[in-house]
Amino acid sequence: MAKNKNVFNLPRYRVNDEIRGYNELRIVGEGIESKITTMAEARQIAESMELDLIEINPTSNPPVVKIASYEKLMYELKKAAKKNKQSAKPLKEIQLSVNITDHDLQTKANNAKKFIENGSKVKVTLTMKGRELTRREDSKRSILEFIVMLEDVAVPEAQPRDDGNKTIVILKKKG
Asked: What does pTM read for this prediction?
C-alpha cells in the first residue's frame, strides 16, 4: 500500500494502520457515499477497493477518513503546491528621492511598468531628508508624478502613507 512521506512541506496524513484509537469514523471518497462506520468496516471497504484509508480531519467528531490512493493524493497536492509557488510573484521596490530629475523618474517608471506587466506589485518608496521633511506635501511631488506616469498600467492599492522619513505606496496591475 502507501508510505507516508512528507514532501514539499505538505500536510502529514496518517494512513491505513497508522490510524488508531477511533470507534467510529466518517468515510468519504470518490464514488463512496459519505457515512459513519466502524474502523474495521472502513478498513475492509478500503481493502476491497484496493485503496488507502487516509485520515483527513482527526479533530472533527467523528474523525473523517478518505478512501483514495495515497500516492495520487500526494501527487495532486505536490502539483498544486508547485503551481502556487510558481505563481507567487515577488514584491519589487523602487526608491525615489525628492529632487529626482525627470529623466531618472521616467527610467524608474519604465522599470516599474515592466515589473507590473510581468505580474509583480511595485512598492514605491520616497525618502526625505532634513528640510524636505518640514515641507512634506511639496516633497511628495515626485511620488505623485510617478503614480501619474504609470496610471495606464497600474493603480495604487491605497493612498501614499507616511512612515517616518519615508512615503510609501504599493502599485498593482490595473483591472
From this structure: 0.51
